[in-house]
Design a protein that fits this description.
The protein is α+β, with helices and mostly antiparallel strands and 170 residues long. The protein is 29% helix and 17% strand. It contains five helices and four strands; from the N terminus they run E-H-E-E-H-H-H-E-H. The termini are far apart.
Length: 170
């Protein structure tokens, strides 16, 4: 697993942003058609880990999550990570190597009309599971963006930290 980055601020965050995105492959991962995508995985993942606001990403011993099963479908691949906030995620997504890979996604992945990306807030330090990701994607598909599962276009702030109960002297 990726070593987790220490928070940049002194105040501990209440929540962190979990994100999942899945994609349906057009070809097998070891095919020549996907060589450009596969070759970009390590550099793009290294860029993510170095990005401001990155906290964690799901990965196997191979250093990525391409062989992690999602929705019991061998043609779906998964990316799941945790970020400080939506702005940090968006900044990473739309610049550098990730932007270049994103621009080529139609070469490698099927066009799908249902939601393939979901975001949600997790308590700081909690890491989402694949089951969490599947549940959030299904919820977003059925209900649209809500505080429970939302998109990059329609996000929600984290729940505020609960105020401690007042103490009374007895």
């Amino acid at each position: 697993m990726t070593p987790e980055r220490e928070p940049a601020s002194v105040a501990e965050p209440v929540a962190e942003l979990a994100q999942v995105n899945i994609a349906r492959l057009k070809y097998p991962l070891d095919s020549p058609q996907l060589k450009g995508f596969v070759d970009a995985l390590d550099p793009v993942n290294a860029d993510a880990e170095a990005a401001d606001g990155f906290v964690w990403r799901l990965q196997t011993e191979e250093g990525n999550a391409t062989d992690v099963a999602v929705f019991d479908d061998a043609w779906l691949i998964l990316n799941m990570s945790v970020w400080r906030d939506p702005e940090a995620l968006k900044t990473y997504m739309y610049q550098g190597r990730h932007r270049e890979v994103l621009a080529r996604r139609r070469e490698w992945f099927e066009h799908v009309t249902e939601a393939m990306t979901a975001l949600w807030w997790v308590p700081a330090g909690q890491r989402p599971t694949v089951a969490d990701a599947e549940e959030r994607l299904l919820h977003l598909r059925e209900h649209g963006p809500t505080r429970y599962a939302f998109s990059l276009r329609t996000d929600f702030p984290p729940e505020p930290r609960p105020e401690p109960a007042p103490t009374t002297a007895v």
